Structure formats: structure tokens, C-alpha cells
Amino acid sequence: MSQARRPDPAGRPDPEGRPDPEGRPDPAGRPDPAGRPDPAGRPDLEAGAPPGRTAARTGIVHLVGAGPGDPGLVTVRALELVGQADVLVYDRLIPPGLVEAAPGGCERVDAGKLPDRHPLAQAEINALVVDRARAGRRVVRLKGGDPFVFGRGAEEAEACAEAGVPFEVVPGVSSAVAAPAYAGIPATHRDLSSTFAVVTGHEDPAGEAAGARWAALARVGTVCVLMGVGRLAAIAARLIEAGRDPGTPAAVVEQGTTPAQRVVRATLATIAEEAVRAGVRAPAVIVIGEVVAMRDRLAWYENRPLSGQTVLVPRTREQASSFSALLRERGAEPLEVPTIEVRPPETTAELDRAVGLLAAGAYDWVVLTSANGVAALRARVEAAGLDARALGRARVAAVGPATEAQLRAWGIAADLVPDVATTAALGEAFPDRPGRVLLPRADLANPELSRAVAAKGGDPDDVVAYRTVPLDEMDLAARKRLDGGEVDWVAFTAASTVTGFVRAYGGPPPDGVRVAAIGPVTAGAARAAGMRVAAEAREHTIPGLVAAIEHAVAARPPSP
To answer: What does pTM read for this prediction?
Structure first.
């Protein structure tokens, strides 16, 4: 008599491919042989899909809110789904970098609408997402703000429902509340407003059916109008006509939650005139109510130390994001411009040889001078079927905090980190007679460290772990902003980024653009390229570089 098979306690799939009697999903992600639905609610997977890109037999549409513009307001679920998309259909007002987070093979469709340009009509968008899902693909429909707040997400959900296509709605942070909040204007306040309404400005306020609506809105504590800049004068007039006090505080928040945010304050009677005088343009949120006066005490976004500053970040494609996130947090607009790429060496034979010697205990020290070096060494160690224990008895040195953090992520605690994050300081801090020393570094690494190790009586083994390759051309949009005087700073994080910038741009930055450097070596490279360095980090880290820019801005605020 056969016995019921118990689930493997380690969670491994049954070698004969039999279904788990308890109905749990196969941990390897394979479809249930009996064809039963996944109990976690995921779509059944199609057999024979390419490795790493399992396609859904029945596709699905995710209607995803991308938030109001600040990348920090993108939800965890939204970012997760973009990273899994087979098809990404996106609107115009999407936070920077979110579209680029889609997988390499993802089909990207720009459905962004302008007042005078509609790449796809709404009916075409509806048909597109349904057709792609019917073809078994995971479709992410990425919409600014919240898909169900004037985003026509309900219409797209209806199209999916009518077609029998599964769909999910992922709410986003709406600009109706986010833009006022970033302007220091609460939607409600216990003493000032216990109600608020969100209304579209697309509808003609003078239309016959609009009278009753504006009469009702005139009695609401706070009124937020989306897409209403072009009709602001008519909106204000209709509210006043309906009984709203002309002296009611009002504001227009242009490009709310982004580094380009501007706020125009006035009264309901004068806000349209002031907005025209300031040249306010869409996208903007109009806020009407006594809560607008709270901005005098609660304004915070524009008061951050780097507000109004645009910082060009000439880094590798892979490494710009952490620097940009810190700049945004401090109020600056980061302009990411890849000027170099980190690539594997032409051959890994030399590094693989060193890994073999390392595992055999042939080295007394391993010295890492960048996070890239750690990543490259780790990749070859793991390619050999080994892990961090391959370092064995060797002691480990890191040039600074970023490299040390990358080592810790690998489970390795550095034995030596100099007080100053430079290769010169690392060479000075190195012990006498260190024995045999492995230095896995870039192909163009300065030989200074090897000479310092040798001077201490050590036997340095310099090994190319990765290459830094300058790009030949700069992004045209970034070049236009540089040439047009829209960039305040260029911040260099390594000498290689200086070389890459000069090659891609064709020379130093234009006059008026200030230069910041992460340390003396980088500053020296910038000066050698004909640049004047306005800020040099005391602590040779990304946070130290941002602090140096902040100090320079505080010492010389931007001209009005």
C-alpha cells in the first residue's frame, strides 16, 4: 500500500515532479503538473518559456500609479512590477529612472499625452494592453499619480474586464495631496478645514452643467484642482460667483514634488493674474482654502540646502543612482549622465589565477580600492564555486567606507581602513613587511599603491579585475542643458569620471558651471583638464562630496 508523500522539509521539489499534496507552489517556480492554479494567485506559467523569462499562459495587466514625480514616492509594488514587465506602457509624467528599471527585453510604449500631441488615443491604449495580455504577456500600464484619480485607469480596467483579461490596480500617491504637501500646504487642518475636494479643471467652468458643482465646491474647506492652469481665471471667477470669499488664500504648485517645484501664492481673486505673471505652466495643482496660509510656517521642500541646484552626475551607468538619491534628498536635481562604463577585463584568466592562489592561502593581504573591485573579485570567486571563505587566512584592507560596505555585504569585515579614503592614505597605513599582497583593481589604476606596498617590504600582485571605458558621446539632452546654462555643478567621483566627461563633452564644463571633486586625486585630474575646483570633499565618500557642495552653496548662494 503506497503512503502519502510528505513535503520535503527543505522545500525541494519532488524529483519525480509529483504535485505537493498540500497544494503549495513549487519552490522552483515550475507549473503544477496537474495544471492546478497557483495558491498564491499568480498566473499559471507557460511551459517552454525562455530561461529567466517565464511568460504567463494567460497574461495580466497591472494598472500602476507612479506617483507625482518624486522617485521616492514610487510604491514598492510599483517598482517590483516594472522590474517584471514584458510590456511597459507609460505616460508622460513618470518619475526619473522608473522606465529604465524595466528589464532589458521589455517592450516600452510611450503613450504620453500633451495638449497638442496624443501618440495613442485612449481607445488604442485600451486595445494595446488587452492585446498584449491576451498574447500571454505581463503588461504594466504606468500612469502618473494614481490611476483612478483622473487617470482614466477605470476605463482601462473596464476594457480588461470586458475582454476577460485579468488585471490588478496598484494605487499611487496622487499629486492632489502630494504637491500641496511638498509646498507646506495641508489638505485639512483641525482649525481651518475638515473637508477637501479634488476636481478636474478640464471641464469648462462656464458650462451649463457646471453651475451646481461649483456652488457645492464653494462651500468645501479645501479645493484642489488638477489640470486647471489654462482655465484658472474662469475657475476662480466661478467660485467667487458661487459665494467663495475673493480674499480666500490660493496657491498654484507647479511641478510639485520635483526639484523644479515652484509655488505662486495669492488670493482667489488675484491668483490667475499672479500665475500668468510668473509664467506658470502645467503640470500644476491649484489649491484654494484657508490652509494655504499654513505655507508661511510649514514650507519645507524649497528650504533644503541644495534646493534650486542642478548637479550633473558623470558616473557609470550602474552607480549613479545612490548619489542621485542623496542629492534629491538634499533638494538638488541630479542630472545623471553616464560618461564611463565598467566592463569585465578582456580575459578573466589573470583574476582566476589569483583566486586560485587566494583559495590556496598564497596571499597574506587582499587590498580593495573600490566597490567595483569587490564586485569583480566576488564574481570570480563565486564562478569558481567558492564563497567568502576563499579569502582564508588573508587579511583584508579597504580604501574607504563605500568599499568597506561592499565587503560587509559579502560577509567580510575589513582589517584595515585608513582614516582618509585615498590610496595614498591606504599605502601609508599599510604595515611593514606585509608579505604577498593581492590588489584586484581597474586596468588604469594609479601604480602609487603598488609602489607603497613594495616600499613597506611587501610583494604586490596587481591584477586587472575590471576595465573603465570612457564613452565617446554625451547624451544630447544633457549637453543642451549644459550649454544652455541650466546646470550649476558637475560632481566628479573619481579621476576616471573626469576623463570620461572630457572625452564625451569635448572639454571642461562651460564657464559658470562649478566643479566638485570627491578627493585630492580626482581634484588633481580635474585641474589637469583645465577645470577650477570649487568644492573638494573632506571625507572622500559620496556623502562627503554632497556635504562639500552644500558648504560651497551656503558660502555663495545662487544669484536671484
So the answer is: 0.68
